[in-house]
Amino acid sequence: MKKKYGYYVIVIFMYFLTGLTYLHSVPHINGRNPGPKEYVRRTKQIKTVKGAVSKTITATGARKIAIIMVNFASAGTSTSGNEIMSSDDIRGLNYNFSYLRNFYLEASYRKLDIEITFFFSTGSASSLSGNETPFTLSTPMSTYGQDTDASLSQLIMDSINICGQVNSINFDGVMVVHAGYGNESTSNDGDIWAAYVGPFANTYGFTEGTNVPVKESGASPIGVTCHEFGHHIGLFDLYSTVTRGATQVGFWSLMDYGVWQGSVQGSNPTHPSAWEKKSLGWLEFVEISSGTHNLESFAFETSSTSVYKLKLIDTESEYFLVYQTSRTAFSPAPSGNNGILIWHIDEGIIDGTTLSDRMATNSLNNFSHRTVSVVPANGIDPSANFGDFGNLWPGKKVIFTAPLSNKYNGQETMLTVFDINNLIQSSQFKASYKPFIRGFVKDSAGVGIESINVALTKTNFVDVTVTDKNGSYVFANLENGIYEIRPVNANLEFVPTSKIISIVDLPLSNNNFAGIAVNTFANLTEKSNNIKAVNNLFVPGQELSTIYYKIAKDGNVTIKLYTLDGKFIKTLVDEFTSAGINSITWDGKNLKDNEVASGIYLVHIEAPGFKSTKKICVIR
After folding, report:
1. pLDDT tens track for 166-203
2. Residue 464 belongs to domain spanning
């Protein structure tokens, strides 16, 4: 079935209103060179557009594609030459287009099947021997290589006309494969840039088409072929189409730098993202909007049933997508590089521009924030390095929460994704809209401190987490109530020592602590008789836990342990102690030499002129 005519009239009408759009081409292989020279197309009359739009390819079902092979009578100037296909070039088309078919079979979950027919000067075939002779165009390669909308459209129209056998009655779409290299992999201005173009003047029923090269310089043409066919079925570029083709989501989508993936660049392109697959009707999102959920995601490359849409409050247009990505036969990644991808999607108005306008002008990611954006676990945006596997979750960060889960306007959403566990076949994680507490532990210079235990306690409740490389911590999926937060480390003293937090259905942020090295206690502003239990966490797997304490003057000190309901457990210290920093070890056992259970215990300290009761967490 064809896509509905009315849909395309609407899209082109928006194009007419805005007056500009951008050529649907691939990013340059180096990610820096600008794309085709004429970025802007203008439409003067809507009637002309309506008359021209008569043929498009839908993204489901069996689709017949005509491949017209062309050489050039001459290369012209400023090209890489190779205006005539070699036998090896021709034979290589069998593999390239077989890959195209299998790639889209897999990416669409077998919803799209492409049937290829090659056309050459003496006939047509579904496979090539290498002895075929392509059609020869009299116009020099470099003329088409001006890479304007007009010159690239002319290449396709001339190819359809010289073939004379391809029409829109028998074929759903047309692609032109030309001799020579694609300008997307060279620096020669006369080479032809691969692109999807249209609408152009009705030619044998076609008003749009795609041109791709038979080869790329130092790369495979497969990725380019898959990318341009993606445009033909309705996909848009995710790289910036105005800033010299700058990558925005890196190799995480075919429609950005994923076009160039593979051991040989372009030999194994990345799938379109889940957002793009949804737009083509290949999958549906599993929507989550409240509560706490234990979720499992199977690799979206081969599973269409476990892409999760995490909705946000007060909006239908902005949300997050969470799903597993992994290697496959037609979208491989190095072994072990599977994990969770998190995407921030905004289908609303950005800088006064609607999603329809952004689509009509092929400019999804050209604005102050992106329509489609990766949220990297390692904090390195794919625009900085074309993407890396550190973007996957869990990574440098293991919990996805505020501020990363904030809306683009800065509003916190209470959304947290945590307990992410990557298995071979799937990823398991929890998504919660319940309140959370987050903050940082930093040194006196304001630098985050890694690997600090932070304990969260409440009546009949205890949880312990560890700060990440930035010194941040998060407690997610919390119930309403009053909590105490306390960072603990044998070599640090913290200001404040703890915080009391009351939760009433709100996320609580900026609960920060400053840690000061033990040998700089003089920097603390506290009373001279202050005694502080610096380390109050009993860590599983350790035979002993050390409790540090500080007294102002010599005298007898007692330290006793009790349960929360006041039952005596054990005396740790009862002796004369010198002023200063002291410590005592505990093996986690009671007076009868039995291990105590996990939980919160009281540490009661008495010294000359001072009494204090602290808490210690036992985690087994």
Report:
1. 999 999 999 999 999 999 999 899 999 999 998 999 99
2. 437-523
Place of tokens 């009546």: 459
95 in a domain, yes or no? yes
Residue 250 lies in a domain: no
Terminal-residue alpha carbon distance, the chain: 62
Residue 183 lies in a domain: yes
DSSP conformational letter for 386? S
DSSP H helices in 108-245: 141-144, 149-163, 222-232
- Beta bridge mates, 125: 118
Give the Cα separation of 220 and 267 in Å (integer): 5
- Rounded to an integer, what distance in angstroms lies between the CA atom of residue 388 and that of residue 238? 17
Looking at the 3D structure of the chain, how many domains does it have?
Answer: 4
Question: Which two structure tokens, joined as six digits, stand for 464?
Answer: 């312990």
pLDDT digits (tens, 9 = 90+) for 308-357: 999 998 899 999 999 999 866 666 554 457 899 999 999 999 999 999 99
In a domain? residue 403: yes
Same domain, 296 and 422: yes
Q: Residue 227 — φ and ψ, nearest 5°?
A: -65, -50
CATH number where 97 lies:
3.40.390
Helix (H) or strand (E) holding 618: strand 610-618
Q: Cβ neighbours of residue 384 under 8 Å, at least 6 residues apart? A: none
Give the global pTM.
0.72
If asked whether residues 303 and 350 sit together in one domain, one would say yes
Could you give the C-alpha distances from 179 to 130, 203, 309, in angstroms and in order? 14, 22, 44
Long-range contacts of 416-422 (CB under 8 A, 24+ apart): 416/474, 416/476, 416/477, 417/310, 417/322, 417/340, 417/342, 417/393, 418/474, 418/476, 418/477, 420/339, 420/340, 420/393, 420/394, 422/324, 422/338, 422/339, 422/340, 422/394
Q: Enter the tokens of residue 53.
A: 């739009």
Rounded-to-integer distance, Cα 99 and Cα 328, Å: 13
Q: Do residue 394 and residue 485 come from a single domain? A: no
Q: What is the CATH number of the domain that holds 480?
A: 2.60.40.1120
Pair of tokens at residue 377 = 């676990």
Predicted pLDDT at 511: 60
Going by C-beta distance under 8 Å and a sequence separation of 6 or more, which residues neighbour residue 385? 250
> Which residues lie below 8 Å from residue 77, measured CB to CB, with a gap of 6+?
142, 190
Quote the tokens at residue 561.
């342990």
Peptide bond into 496 cis (omega under 30): yes
CA–CA dist 512, 444 (Å, integer): 12
